Amino acid sequence: MTASAKLLALDKPSQNENWTVVMPHRGKKRIRSLRHNTPEAEQQPWVPNELESDPEREAKLIQKMEFCIKKVESSRFYENFLEQVENPEILDSFHRVLGFEPKMPMVIYGIGSIESYENPRFQLSLAILMKRKFCWIGDIEVFDPILSATESRVLESLGCSVLSVNEQGRRRAAKSMVFYMPHCEAGLYNNLLQANWEMELLNHIVLFGNSFEMYEFFSEIKNSIVVESTKHVLAARKFADEYVIKTASDDFFAAFHDSSWHFFNPALDTELLLVKN
């Protein structure tokens, strides 16, 4: 089923390294150095500009994150979110992607600065609460090129791993995976789909991110830039089930408006021939 989404303008993007970051998110740390199924030519080694973590800022940020996690967990928004995920139709979609795997790891791209802005903290809080609630959510990996050493240390303390390479959103889903990408730029979703433009790989993906229906709307008003940067997104609409996230509370509207779950189920390889990689 494809639900209707409110068509609201996204936050203005700002350019940062090789990503376009949608929202103005803004000691030493342990960062995972893993080489996943991303072509070597598209992996760029990354370290934060700030190499030393600040213990005082760490402590303050941990307090902020604990507050946000509690606020989300006790909210009507989270109650609605869980009801939606546990709806038989959506839960069946998760189980279809999970298959015989015991867990599906979560990859978070483009979370932004959790130290500088509340919306990224709310978005991260929801991901952490999902892992705590659902036994089938596995390890969480995070990447955003604007993360500081302090933020990376806090992410590690919350049970996440920070990647040491910029995959540019091109992780190949060799196994079932959740890609958690709230309010990322269109090109990042397109990179993910392009890298996984095969029946088997697409069937391994659960994507949380901007509504694809919204991109289709923008393409219909002949915005050539949107069309060029979202050709895989637009093509995937033909075989994607989209479930729009309910954002009844003003407290969480900015963090989650126009967000949806997306599940991909191309029936035939011929559906993928509509777009050339």
Automatic annotation (TrEMBL):
GO terms for cellular component: cytoplasm; nucleus. This is SRR1-like domain-containing protein. PANTHER family: SRR1-LIKE PROTEIN. It comes from the Eukaryota. Residues 94-263 form the SRR1-like domain. Belongs to the SRR1 family. InterPro entries: SRR1-like, SRR1L.
